[in-house]
Design goal:
Strand content: 15-25%
Order of helices and strands: HHHEEHEHHEEEEHEEEEHEHEEH
Number of domains: 3
Structural class: alpha/beta
CATH class of the largest domain: Alpha Beta
CATH superfamily of the largest domain: Periplasmic binding protein-like II
Number of helices: 10
Number of strands: 14
Largest sheet: 5 strands, mixed
Length: about 300
């Protein structure tokens, strides 16, 4: 198993054909096919299903591919360091992040990142649902959550604060709760959570609730008077400033167990493209995040 064979595997997966990958690597198609067969013999499993129309990764091939990429990237990082070329950052950077947070705060700054590192290509996955992250599938993960021991390296990007909010129109129609106990008589909008925990020790079970799996959609529902909901400050801050939402029960703060984290696989060597993205995000979000600090008006 040599470097060229690993490069060949990766390019076949990216281009969808042996001939295209061979031309890209300046080797003959016959040589590429022979290398692929030899690599599969060494590994003991098939990497691709070949048809007359396409070459597709097998299940084993899909599982093995991130580790091949990781191995090749580690070697190339070492070569660059020895040759004094570590400043030439390039390659594909795979990131996953919450959909709302990504759209509001990450996507708008990526042009700035790519102007600094034009040879870094981005592969982004945005979802407010927690993904089952297999080590090696992503280079960098942004999570807005409380973290268990995940086996990943963790850097804190920013603090979070959770608060209850509603539209002025909703509160005018249904009344303003004065204690957490009053919430049981109110309509709520949630991302699926069943309980709200307060710093005074109270735990309120959400009764009547509309549930949605997207943070921005939830904020819009709240702005249109569909109930009371728990929002992160980063998500609700502009709506609070504009008056579309107001804080509910400010004298009874919620327990905030989450922060915004950067996670990346536990590797001995971090690829330069991952390192520069981490440094870039830390620069953008610290010491004060883009949403600043909410001050009651």
């Amino acid at each position: 198993m040599d470097i060229l064979s690993l490069r060949l595997l990766i390019r076949i997966a990216e281009l969808g054909g042996v001939t295209a990958a061979a031309h890209d690597l300046s080797i003959s198609p016959a040589s590429a096919s022979a290398r692929l067969v030899k690599l599969e013999e060494i590994l003991g499993f098939r990497l691709f299903n070949r048809t007359t129309r396409a070459v597709l990764l097998t299940t084993d091939g899909e599982l093995f591919l991130p580790y091949a990429q990781q191995t090749l990237e580690t070697l190339e990082t070492g070569f660059s360091a020895v040759r004094g070329q570590s400043s030439d950052v390039q390659g594909l950077l795979r990131m996953t992040m919450p959909g709302s947070f990504g759209r509001m705060y990450i996507i708008p700054i990526l042009a700035k990142f790519q102007s600094r590192y034009p040879q870094v290509k981005l592969d982004l996955r945005l979802s407010d649902e927690v993904l089952d992250v297999v080590e090696g599938a992503y280079d960098l993960i942004i999570r807005n959550a409380s973290l268990a021991d995940s086996g990943l390296i963790v850097r804190k990007l920013a603090t979070d604060r959770r608060l209850l909010v509603a539209s002025p129109a909703y509160l005018k129609q249904y009344g303003v709760p004065t204690t957490p106990d009053d919430l049981v008589d109110h309509r709520c909008v949630t991302l699926g959570e069943k309980k709200w925990k307060f710093e005074n020790g109270q735990i309120i079970r959400v009764s009547f609730s509309n549930t949605v799996n997207d943070g921005e959609a939830m904020r819009t529902m709240l702005e249109h008077g569909m109930g009371i909901g728990m929002k992160s400050l980063w998500n609700a801050n502009e709506s609070l400033k504009s008056g579309l939402l107001v804080e509910v029960l400010p004298g009874f703060p919620l327990i905030t167990e989450a922060s915004i984290w950067l996670l990346y696989p536990s590797r001995r060597i971090i690829a330069p493209r991952v390192r520069v993205m981490i440094d870039f995000l830390i620069e953008q979000f610290q010491p004060i995040p883009p949403w600043g600090h909410y001050i009651e008006l």
